[in-house]
Write a structure and sequence with these properties.
Layout: E1 2-7, H1 11-25, E2 29-33, H2 44-49, E3 53-57, E4 65-69, E5 74-78, E6 91-96, E7 99-105, H3 115-136, E8 141-146, H4 170-180, E9 185-186, H5 187-191, E10 200-201, E11 213-214, E12 217-221, H6 223-226, E13 229-234, E14 250-254
Parallel strand pairs: 1-2, 7-8
Antiparallel strand pairs: 1-14, 2-4, 3-4, 5-6, 6-7, 8-12, 9-12, 10-11, 13-14
Helix pairs in contact: 3-4
The structure holds one DNA strand of 18 nucleotides.
DNA sequence: ATGCCTATGCGACATAGA
């Protein structure tokens, strides 16, 4: 079973690239982030034609997550508990062939310090709580998405260049470690323990041609699913396409 | 020390991204 995550940065602008990538790599499940549209405007027909069912948690203009699957998926949740005021569409969860799959768009948090950074940390605390409940269920789970967290200095082209960024702050990294230490496995680091494994390159300043990237898109596996991990990878070449997203797809293959 | 680029909205620039 191939499960991928892809921050597409706008389904409106990215549909052709998304369809190309789906046709080429044929994931069984694709978790999307930053669809930047409401449910009604999501191109369900085009994706059905490509062989995918759609679960959509959309929002006008910003954010928005979705889960595409070849076989029908059962939605098991949208949004995180713990803040009724939070209306951002950043979390959707489904069960596919016995595997619980979450598509996560964690808040960016810039500028920091400030209210956006506070929101990021509160959101991470809510995710931590939900993730603990998922682990307690002892089901196979993958938490896939754009975490907006650069876990270590190895995951960024230059630590000093990003020093003031919300993605590398000690509080951000500590919150991510707390999540990981619950017992999750970072799929990419399971396959490639060290060295650059970037998943994002800024549109600005020639970041892609200069390979000034970040590793911020992650697939976290529950212990039971980590035991079934066959391979994991990053579809770097997608970044070179026409009108590419600033993120590229990251994927795992797990034994079914 | 700032902008660099891109996508979206009911727009003619602002906001958000990371």
């Amino acid at each position: 079973m191939r499960i991928a995550t892809f921050n597409i940065n706008g389904i409106g602008a990215r549909l052709p690239r998304l369809l190309d990538w789906l046709a080429e790599t044929q994931p069984d499940v694709a978790c999307l982030q930053e669809i930047k549209t409401q449910d009604e405007s999501f191109p369900v027909a085009a994706l059905n034609d490509a062989g995918y069912h759609c679960l959509i948690h959309g929002q006008k203009g910003f954010n928005g997550v979705a889960i595409l699957s070849k076989v029908p998926a059962t939605e098991t949740g949208r949004g995180l508990r713990g803040d009724p005021e939070d209306l951002h569409a950043r979390y959707i969860e489904a069960e596919v062939e016995g595997v619980t799959i979450a598509s996560i768009y964690l808040p960016n948090g810039n500028p920091q310090p400030g209210p956006k950074f506070d929101y990021k940390l509160r959101w991470m605390a809510r995710l931590e709580e939900h993730a603990a409940a998922l682990l307690a269920s002892e089901k196979p789970v993958v938490l896939a998405g754009d975490y907006n967290v650069i876990p270590t200095a190895e995951d960024v082209f230059s630590e000093p260049a990003m020093g003031n960024d919300a993605l590398v702050q000690p509080e951000t990294r500590a919150a991510f470690r707390r999540l990981m230490f619950q017992g999750w496995t970072d799929a990419i680091r399971a396959v490639q323990p060290s060295g650059p494994a970037y998943t994002f390159w800024d549109y600005q300043a020639g970041a892609w041609p200069r390979d000034l990237g970040l590793r911020i898109d992650h697939l976290l596996l529950s212990p039971g699913l980590a035991d079934r991990l066959i391979d994991a990878g990053i579809d770097r070449t997608v970044r070179a396409g026409e009108r590419a997203s600033d993120h590229v797809p990251v994927w795992i293959v797990v034994r079914t």
